[in-house]
Amino acid sequence: MTFVHPAAYVLLALLIVPILLYLLPMPRRRVRFPSLLLWERMLRDRPSSQSWRWLRTLLSFLLQMAILVLLVLAVGKPVFSPAEGKGDAAVIVLDVSASMKAPVSPGSGETRFERARELARNLLNGMPSAKPAALITAGSSPVVLSGLTDQRSLLLSKLNALVCTDGRTNLKSALELALELSRGGTNADVYLLSDGHADVSGVSLAGARLHYFRTGQTLPNVGIVDFRARRGFDFPEEYQALARLESTFDSEQTVELSLVMDDNVVETRTVKLAPRSSVSESFRGKIQGVGSLEARLKGDDAFAADDVAHVLLGKSEKLQTLLVSDKPDRFLESALTANRAVTPFVATLQQYLDKRPEPDILIFNGVLPPELPDGNLLIIDPPTGSSLFQLAGEVTSPEMSDWGRTHPILAGATLKDVYIPTARALKPLVAAEVLARCEGGPLMFAAQTPERRLLVVAFDPGTSSITFRVAFPVIIANAFRWMTDEGTISNEDLRAGDEVLIRLTQESPAVEVKYPDGRTGSVESRSGVFPVSASEVGVYEVVSRLGRKMTFAANLADASESDLTVADELKLADTVVRGRDRKGAGLGEFWFIAAVLALGLLALDWYLYHHRFVV
Amino acid sequence: MPQTRLDSKFLRKLEHLMLMAKGVYSGELMGGRRSKRRGAGIEFTDHKAYSPGDDLRYLDWNVLGRLDELFLKTFEMEEDLYVYLLIDASQSMDYGTPSKTEIAKVVAACLAYIGLAKQDVVKLSFFSDSLVAGSDHFKGREHIFEVFDFLNEHDTRGRTDFQDALSSFVRYNRRHGIAIIISDFLDPGGIEEGIKTLIHNRFAIFGLHVVDPTEEDPELVGDLNLVDSETDEVLPLSVRRSTIETYRDFFQKHCGYVRRFLNSYDGHYIKVPTTTGLEDLILKVFRREGLLT
Question: How much is the ipTM here?
Answer without folding.
Answer: 0.82
